[in-house]
Write a structure and sequence with these properties.
single chain, alpha+beta, Aminopeptidase, seven-stranded mixed β-sheet, 5 helices, 7 strands, globular, binds coenzyme A
Length: 168
């Protein structure tokens, strides 16, 4: 990565920036500002983290707790995107690897731990490779034609990001 990137929680007043990235990254999904606003309002069930480079938000990741607030948390990486001009420089990798430990630390404060991470994506999306290498996620099922194409359901049980980062 050529310039330093900071990964931090979304701050108040930054929803529009994330909505702008959502709009560019997911052209089939509508009403980006409403979508991101609703999700941000669902904190702490939904947590956004942003990637900031030279003072500009260039990417985001959205973590969602599944099936109630449990001690053994199943977390979904529900969505992530990086601005087209900032792709291919490790920002998605940094978003996952640096935000998940932050979520884990927050969950520890209520006595909870991450049991597993699930993520779904189109089978033709390069993101599958990113989820495998950052989280150790494996494709457990493919649902034909779920959204706009075949969708891979990926799971990583007990992801250990500290160890994975140390291995790199
Ligand atoms: C998927 C996406 C978030 C990746 O962001 P990114 O910042 O470019 O990804 P990174 O640079 O961190 O790349 C991570 C890894 O994937 C690989 N990779 C990224 N884009 C790639 C591409 N187009 N082709 C092949 N490999 C690619 C990188 O080589 C890297 O591998 P490495 O860490 O082993 O070297 C970005 O392309 C995007 O926003 N796409 C549109 C939205 C989307 O599809 N989101 C995912 C589904 S929710």
């Amino acid at each position: 990565m050529s310039q330093a990137v900071e990964i931090r929680p979304l701050a108040a007043g930054e929803v529009e920036h994330v909505a702008g990235i959502h709009q560019v990254a997911f052209p089939r999904q509508q009403n980006s500002l409403l979508w991101v606003s609703c999700n941000a309002a669902a904190y702490p069930r939904i947590r956004y983290f942003v990637a900031v480079q030279v003072g500009k938000i260039v990417g985001y990741v959205q973590w969602t707790e599944k099936s109630g607030f449990r001690e053994e948390v199943v977390l979904e990486l529900e969505q992530m995107a990086v601005l087209p001009e900032n792709r291919g420089r490790g920002i998605a990798r940094a978003l996952i690897e640096q935000s998940l430990p932050q979520v884990a630390r927050e969950l520890e404060k209520r006595g909870a731990r991450i049991k597993g991470v699930m993520v779904t994506t189109r089978t033709d999306n390069v993101a599958q490779r990113i989820y495998a290498s950052t989280l150790g996620a494996e494709t457990k099922a493919v649902i034909p034609d779920l959204y706009s194409a075949d969708e891979a359901i990926m799971i990583a049980l007990s992801p250990d990001l500290g160890r994975r980062q140390g291995e790199r």
